[in-house]
Write a structure and sequence with these properties.
Structural class: mainly beta
Low-confidence stretches: 1-7, 12-21
Shape: elongated
Radius of gyration: 25 Å
Distance between the termini: 65 Å
Mean pLDDT: 89
Bound molecules: copper (II) ion
Oligomer: single chain
């Protein structure tokens, strides 16, 4: 059982990943000590847990009790560190297991780790013993969790589609409770797969940038008389952690922490078919590719007497300068400064290839090597480029301007930026 410093992963115990699974299949995930082995993707954990929820895991117990009938077949996960229990819901997409963690009622006096359903009274009993690394207050505890049959809808199944997440409940959710979609919230983030002990939380859209990405919930659909809800989100991608906070008319919102290794076909095929969809590479493959494929930038060797040009990014995907004039063959020292809040790069391309290079860059999100390649599509049309510059950073390249006079487009190839974030280098 892992107990990483910044995130926890629940490994798949006693259940093998099916042969259909596209990632891993040869080793457990070596988060922390030892780190990734053989540059190959490991078996994926069933679910990740943010450190704030569970800094040190206890164990899991299969739900097998007449009182807990509604949740039969799912798991209870205990947190040694937080002294809490969670529902652990099993999902599977094309043979790839994945899951969701749902905090449920119960705060325990000591660091609980073992749990068991009593064969006679059907209640859940937990035992705890604090050694180190727990936020609980007492040396030991032995406590009972009773199913009280309060009319609280608890999620019993989840399934992730390309266009949203479907949740099935033990009791109907009132229709009126979900009427205001603006009260529902979704965000996501990734962890870094490395030899480090734990990981910070990173944006899933901007590799290497710490933080979370907020997702837009376009609707919450009330299905099967409230037994199921479909939370529609258009920009869902594989992520280590998807957090849903749903107001269902209860005193507290329902919190779900899902791990999305794979997405099933759209729940609403027609709606989703309007635009071709590109599914992003799995975060763990991107982490491995960064180690394997990252190369130093070719244009860092200083050229003496080069003319200094500073290119600055602006707000809303822009360069401050949309035109630069140079002489044929002129030596240039170009610095991209990025005071913006998003990562950007600067890529010079052959005349007439703005769209070709830009569209190739957009398709790169499906390629695990995208960040390792600095989002530069492998193409002869690319003449010079900086690396991806993080918010607040700068990057300098040295090159000679093309000898042929003409209009050479430049663009940011971070996926989705090029259509507005471009300009022209004019060789006079
Ligand atoms: Cu950009």
């Amino acid at each position: 059982m892992c107990a990483a410093a910044f995130s926890c992963a629940v490994p798949l115990q006693g259940r093998l990943t099916s042969p259909d699974a596209r990632i891993g299949g040869h080793q457990p995930p070596y988060f922390g000590y030892g780190g990734p082995k053989d540059d190959r993707a490991p078996d994926l954990p069933l679910v990740y847990l943010p450190r704030g929820l569970d800094n040190s895991s206890g164990a899991q117990v299969a739900i097998d009790s007449p009182h807990w009938q509604e949740l039969a077949g799912q798991l209870i996960h205990t947190s040694y560190g937080a002294g809490r229990i969670f529902l652990l819901l099993w999902d599977e997409v094309r043979g790839q297991p994945q899951g969701a963690i749902v905090p449920i009622a119960g705060e325990f006096r000591s660091a609980i780790h073992r749990a068991c359903f009593h064969p006679h009274d059907g209640h859940l009993y937990v035992s705890g013993m604090a050694g180190w690394g727990t936020y609980t207050t007492e040396d030991g505890c032995f406590q009972r969790v009773r199913w009280t049959d309060k009319k609280v809808p608890l999620p019993r199944k989840v399934h992730v589609h390309e266009d949203g997440v479907w949740i099935e409940f033990t009791r109907p959710v009132r229709k009126a409770a979900i009427a205001d979609v603006s009260r529902q919230f979704a965000q996501c983030w990734n962890y870094r797969y490395s030899g480090a002990y734990g990981s910070p939380e990173f944006s899933s859209r901007h590799y290497g940038v710490p933080g979370h990405d907020v997702l837009t919930i376009s609707s919450v659909e009330w299905l099967d008389h409230g037994r199921r809800l479909f939370v529609a989100m258009d920009d869902l991608q594989p992520v280590n952690q998807l957090h849903l906070s749903l107001e269902l008319g209860q005193p507290r919102p329902l919190e779900l922490f899902l791990t999305v290794h794979a997405l099933d076909r759209p729940f609403h095929p027609r709606r989703a078919a309007n635009e071709p969809r590109i599914t992003a590479a799995h975060p763990i493959l991107t982490d491995l590719a960064v180690n394997l494929h990252k190369k130093p930038n070719r244009w860092q060797k200083p050229i003496e007497g080069a003319r200094a040009i500073t290119m600055k990014t602006g707000p809303n995907l822009t360069y401050r300068q949309t035109e630069i004039r140079v002489r044929p063959g002129e030596p240039i020292r170009l610095t991209l400064r990025n005071p913006d809040v998003l990562p950007h790069n600067w890529v010079l391309a052959r005349p007439g290839t703005l769209r070709t290079v830009g569209e190739a860059a957009n398709r790169l999100i499906a390629d695990p090597r995208a960040y390792a390649l600095q989002y530069i599509p492998p193409s002869d049309d690319v003449l010079v480029h900086t690396d991806i510059v993080p918010p607040g950073g700068a990057f300098t390249v040295y090159f000679r301007a093309p000898k042929e006079p003409g209009r050479y487009p430049y663009l940011c190839t971070f996926p989705g930026h090029w259509m507005v974030m471009n300009g022209v280098l004019i060789v006079e």
